[in-house]
Amino acid sequence: MKPQLILLGAPGSGKGTQAARLVAELGYNHLSTGDLLRKEIKSESDLGKKVQGIMNEGKLVDDDTVLELLNANCDLGSSVYIFDGFPRNGEQAKALDSVVLKEAKSRAVYFDIDLEKLAARLTNRRTCSGCGEIYNLLSKAPAKEGVCDKCGGELTQRKDDNEETVKTRLQVFKETIDPVLAHYEETGRLAKIDASNAPEEVFSALKAVTEA
Ligand code: AP5
Q1: Which residues make Cβ contacts (< 8 Å) with residue 198, sequence separation at least 6?
Q2: What's the chain's average pLDDT?
Q3: Does the beta carbon of 126 lie inside 6 Å of ligand 1?
Q4: CA of 118 to the centre of ligand 1 (A)
Q5: N or C: which end of the chain has fewer CB within 10 A?
Q6: Is 157 helix (H, G, I), strand (E, B) or coil?
Q7: pTM above 0.90?
Q8: Residue 21 is a catalytic residue
C-alpha cells in the first residue's frame, strides 16, 4: 500500500502541479486545505466569510478551523491521500499525526527551492475555473490567452497571487516551516526534492519517494 503523502513547500514551489499528476498517474486523492478554504469562500459560507480576509492578506487561518475542515474531508479507510498545504506549523504537524493519520503509514516530501524564484512563478500563475489545470504565463502558457487548453474553461488569477500578498505568504512560510521539517526529520519520514528542476524531473523524484 502506498504511503499517505504529505507535500511540504513554499507557496509556488509546485505542490499543486505535482499533486494533479500524482492523482492522474498513481491514483492518489488530492486534499488541499487551500482549495477547501477557497471552496468555502466561493460558496459564501460562514466559514468562508471568516477566512476570506485572512487569506487575501496571505496570513494563516487558525489551526482548529483548518484541522476540522481537513478531518471532515478525509476518509483514510477508503483512500490514499496527498496532503497539500497542511501542516503549516509544528502544531498542525502533530495534529495531523494524532487526529488524522494515527497509525497510517506516511511520508513527507519537502519541495526545496530558493524562495527568490517564487514571486515570479506566483504572480504569473493562472488556474482554469473549470477543470483546475494550473498554467504559468512564463513557463506554461495556454495556446489561447485566458482559455484552458484542456477544457476551454476561463483562466483566472488567484486573489492572493499579487505582489504584496505573495511577499507576506513567503515571509509567513519562512517563519513557520522549520518546526514542520524538524517534526518529520525526527520521525524519519522526511524526503527532500529539488523543486527548481523542470516539472518532469520533480515528478520522477516524487514517484521514487512513493515507491521507496
Ligand atoms: P494554499 O492554497 O495552500 O497555497 P500555497 O501553499 O501558498 O501554495 P500554492 O498553491 O500557492 O503553490 P503550489 O506549491 O501549489 O504551486 P503550484 O503548483 O500552483 O494556501 C493559500 C492560503 O490558504 C494560505 O495563505 C492560508 O491563508 C490558507 N491556508 C491553507 N492551508 C492552511 C493551513 N494548513 N493552515 C492555515 N492556513 C492555511 O505552482 C505555482 C506556479 O509555478 C504555477 O504557475 C506552475 O505552473 C508553476 N510551476 C510549478 N512547478 C514548476 C516548475 N517545476 N518549474 C517552473 N514552474 C513551475
Answers
A1: none
A2: 95
A3: no
A4: 10
A5: N
A6: coil
A7: yes
A8: no
